[in-house]
Amino acid sequence: MAQQQQISLPAKLINGGIAGMVGVTCVFPIDLAKTRLQNQRSGQQLYKNMMDCLIKTVRSEGYFGMYRGAAVNLTLVTPEKAIKLAANDFFRHQLSKDSGKLTVFKEMLAGCCAGMCQVIITTPMEMLKIQLQDAGRLAAQQRVMPSVVATLKMGGTSAVLSRAYNTSPAPQVMRVSATEITRELLRTKGVTGLYRGLGATLMRDIPFSVVYFPLFAHLHQLGQHSSEDPSVPFYWSFMSGCAAGSIAAVAVSPCDVVKTRLQSLKKGANEETYNGVVDCVRNILRKEGPGAFLKGASCRALVIAPLFGIAQVVYSVGVGEFLLGYTPHNIYSA
């Protein structure tokens, strides 16, 4: 049984890192649209939907505007995906040692552990990415409402964190890098500044992993040629990753909205700040209604589905095993 085979953690980490880089490169513009749609409030809607957001982004910021924040995401997604995918394999392997078989509960437990491990990287990565992705929305809001001065509602606002947006009637977007934001957060808030929204990130990533990994495993198993030949065609791995990813993404979309709101340091005009998860949920319900928790849900599904589909295919290719000389390199299992 494959479940009883000895796994190589370094090889799995390499596979996960490569899978993350390939996947993120393909779907990052949709992720940017998701962040901007989630952050806009009722009555201040600059974008009607995902396509409208992407078109306006290209018009105002150019083609590469769709990749704002991609550098930090590509830098940190390597360890993030490596930890997530490798940890799930590791915990599944450990939990199946006794009986050689995984129950659904044990599969969910392995996913839960993987989700807890990944937030070490996910939280600061999302924190920095959101600031860079949302910059264009705030600048566009100032252009649409030139008489309104954007309010930066972060305690101890600094020159670096406040200069990204010019509050004059004709705003010029000043480029601010992830490195500058990181330095300023560490100086003013300490390490905890990078982990703002940790509770909401856990609330999103643990349920996601609990839903995604068991669902993917069962869908993937349906593609096996036979009980004697457990190999699965690469296209089936892709479809299984897409299906499981989109279902899990929509299921935890409300948590993703809360996380995005909490991690946005800069606020546009009349955009409130929140004192934790409970306060954020209460205010969104009161001011925007339950529908606000599904903002960007379709974008998130479109991001996560191909991201995990691509990631699972790349992960199963076995580049890590090949590089470390553990197994023969075979791209296609079909």
UniProtKB/TrEMBL annotation:
InterPro entries: MCP, MCP_dom_sf, MCP_transmembrane, Mito_Solute_Carrier. The lineage of its organism: Eukaryota, Metazoa, Chordata, Craniata, Vertebrata. Mitochondrial glutamate/H(+) symporter. Responsible for the transport of glutamate from the cytosol into the mitochondrial matrix with the concomitant import of a proton. Plays a role in the control of glucose-stimulated insulin secretion. PROSITE patterns: SOLCAR (PS50920). GO terms for molecular function: L-aspartate transmembrane transporter activity; L-glutamate transmembrane transporter activity. SUPFAM superfamilies: Mitochondrial carrier. GO terms for cellular component: mitochondrial inner membrane. It is found in: Mitochondrion inner membrane. This is Mitochondrial glutamate carrier 1. Solcar repeats lie at residues 7-94, 102-222, 232-321. Belongs to the mitochondrial carrier (TC 2.A.29) family. Keywords: Membrane, Mitochondrion, Mitochondrion inner membrane, Repeat, Transmembrane, Transmembrane helix, Transport. It catalyses: L-glutamate(in) + H(+)(in) = L-glutamate(out) + H(+)(out). The keyword Transport applies. One of its GO terms (biological process) is malate-aspartate shuttle. It comes from the Eukaryota. It is a multi-pass membrane protein. It holds the Pfam family Mito_carr.
